[in-house]
Write the structure tokens for this entry.
Amino acid sequence: MPMNEFPKSAKFNHSYYLMVTQKKETLGLSVEDMANTITHELTTGCKDAPHIKCGFIGEIGCSFPLNEFERKSIQASGETQESLGCPVMIHPGRHPSAPEEIFRIYTESGGDVKKMVMGHLDRTFNDVEALSEFASLGTFCEYDLFGIETSHYQLETSTDMPSDAQRIQRIKHLVDNGFEDKILIAHDIHTVHRLEAYGGHGFCHILKNIVPKMLHRGISNEVVDKILISNPSDWLSFSK
């Protein structure tokens, strides 16, 4: 669909992704340059679709270890979040130490932890105690790779990708430890073979297959509604 055909009510998201995906001119941007661009696209309109405003900052691409460009991107996002009260989503580096470092840089830049989502925790924390320790910082914790049922993770072969059943077990651990208000889930569908038309599980997978299993594993209807309705609403609303 051409940009000029998107409905006026559509919402995009804006942030700077991993350094390896950037053009040379983008790599030279300052924190102030980045913050100004993000602010413009949230409040005025997108460069390629001026009639459309972004709805949140994300996903902010982070490697491990962080490089200087990605550090500036986090700082710019934290400063913009403080100014606008907007929601923010993070793509952490593939290491258990990555989320806490990102959290520190973001909050030191003024970012509100209550508006921050740390995504891809499926492939980041294998230890539930480390997961609980991170959740205690107050950020939203997202399990967003539901539907990927292979243990082989080609982007980090030292990590075993959990199954959907294991994702639910880790979510149950968060619920049992008092973090039910800070859980989000998704599919991260980014390839056509995961769509139903190409033989994949499709966008109905969570509602059709995951929710019944969550209920069967002792997660209450009330908590499921929080995860699917209340928590996303709390995150996506602007606080200013």
About this structure: The first strand starts at residue 12 and ends at 14. The beta strands are 12-14, 54-61, 88-91, 116-118, 140-143, 183-185. Residues 1-11 have pLDDT under 50 and may be disordered.
